Prior knowledge:
- The complex is a heterodimer.
- By secondary structure, chain A is mainly alpha-helical.
- Helices cover 80% and strands 0% of the residues of chain A.
- Chain A contains eleven helices and no strands.
- In chain A, α2 crosses α10 (234-262), α8 (178-215) runs parallel beside α9 and α9 runs antiparallel to α10.
- The radius of gyration of chain A is 24 Å and the shape is globular.
- Chain B is an alpha/beta fold.
- Helix content of chain B is 31%, strand content 23%.
- Chain B has helices spanning 42-50, 90-102, 111-127, 143-155, 173-189, 201-207, 260-267; strands at 4-13, 16-26, 31-35, 57-62, 65-66, 75-78, 161-165, 193-197, 210-216, 229-236.
- In chain B, α2 packs parallel to α4 and α3 (111-127) crosses α4 (143-155).
- The longest helix of chain B is centred in the middle third of the chain and has 17 residues, at 111-127.
- Chain B is globular.
- The A-B interface holds A 164-167, 169-177, 180, 183-185, 188-189, 263-266, 268-269 and B 50-52, 70-73, 75-77, 79, 81-88, 96-97, 99-101, 104, 106-108, 137-140, 153-154, 157, 159.
Amino acid sequence: MRxxxxxxxxxxxxxxxxxxxxxxxxxxxxxxxxxxxxxxxxKLLPALTTLVDSVNTLAFIPDKRTGDYILWxxxxxxxxxxxxxxxxxxxxxxxxxxxxxxxxVARAVLSPFVAFVSMVPPLALLPVLFIVLGLGEVSKVxxxxxxxxxxxxxxxxxxxxxxxxxxxVKAETLSASTWLIGLRVVLPQVLPRLIDSLRLQLGPAFxxxxxxxxxxxxxxxxxxxxxxxxxxxxxxxxxxxxxITLLAVLMDVALATLRRRxxxxxxxxx
Amino acid sequence: MTAITVERVWKEYGDxxxxxxxxLEVAPRSFLALVGPSGxxxxxxxxxxxxxxxxxxxxxxxxxxxxxxxxxxxxxVVYQRYSVFPHLTVLGNVMLGPELQASRLLxxxxxxxxxxxxxxxxxxxxxxxxxxxxxxxxAQLSGGMQQRLALAQALMMKPRVLLxxxxxxxxxxxxxxxxxxxxxxxWNEVPMTVVMVxxxxxxAFTLATRIxxxxxxxxxxxERERYGATITKDIAIWPPRVAGTQTHFDIxxxxxxxxxxxxxxxxxxxx
Lengths: 270, 271
């Protein structure tokens, strides 16, 4: 049988999916063992036991100075900034993207400007944000919004414009006003795409979050990583990176599920 | 009294003349079929009646008054595709028009008003043969059923003119024959004028009361831009079909049921 015709069953698929992860862990353990055998004080690839101890300390033992559980307070601070940034971006994108997608007049005003703004490298603006908005939460959330919102706006504009003209005309023959076309015809059809777009923007959003936290914060996942970097504390950095990745994956899955639940038709229509 | 009056209408896109000098009077309750080769402006003409496009010169009157410059609820439309909304259920699609008309802020009705509307919508769905599919989404329906849904959705608005843009062109022959039967019945029962674009001559002669052929009279390459298509034939079907009545020419013979007297008794006026 040709390789191209061999399809794994669900069980086999699950096993195959595990292979790269297992290989990664094995490679790490091998590297770590080799380095530690060479030099027991090596800090670059700590042993698995060291990592587990470190996670235990970070997650389940209160910090001596503040009394906080460091991992959870960092996670809380970061997710709050990320969630707020994404929510504000989605809100702005929904309003401006739909306006530009539906109304030719609004499109003429907004599209060139949004296209321009979306090309500004957000990280280059970070110093400006810190200077203008201060070192608090506002500047970090603002960085996420500046980085994510323009892309979302452009994507929603394109999605709204891609709706067949026939559908808009049909709504007009059903007596819809511009407002009602937006509310009952365009909005429900762009919302699934907004969720997908948000999923794609999770990566960049985390990037902006960690960049902002690295420079100035008193708590946060990115802050912690860049704090312990000075002490070469790989036993903190590795678990944090894995945790951030896991959070992003979970958010991605949650958004995908949300989309399926809220808009069952969008699955059927494809 | 005419339903639609077209007075010396031209349509040009830049230098390209698409339609030239169309003049037409359409009687109320007629079923007009527009036929002609592809790219001869049938659909453009339909869109002008719809209000999606405006004539470059000339004017179109609806019941004696000038046509608004945009589509409205007095003119319903069914396209070949994209006529129904994929995010609404079958019932939601049919309820949408009256909901939009009654609730200008939210576009939704609630409570007793909603239930009454849902009953009307179910009756309309039964009329087009879609009972039992109320809670499906359009993507779960076959092509023929989607077009039935599109008809039901348009008819909920009680349009004075129903515009059909090759509505049955993508359907299998068997399904098409069935939906022709439905279309004839609806035209007989609902007080409306129908204008249909089709490239299926058989369909045109089966359904219409009058057939208008569009054609380019000058079609040499160097003439193509400066001369548009115009009405070249205007055929009234004989014997005349009149909405709401039937002649014995209209009685379709069902396979295996070729006793016309039996059929006529059973069919009543609805054929």
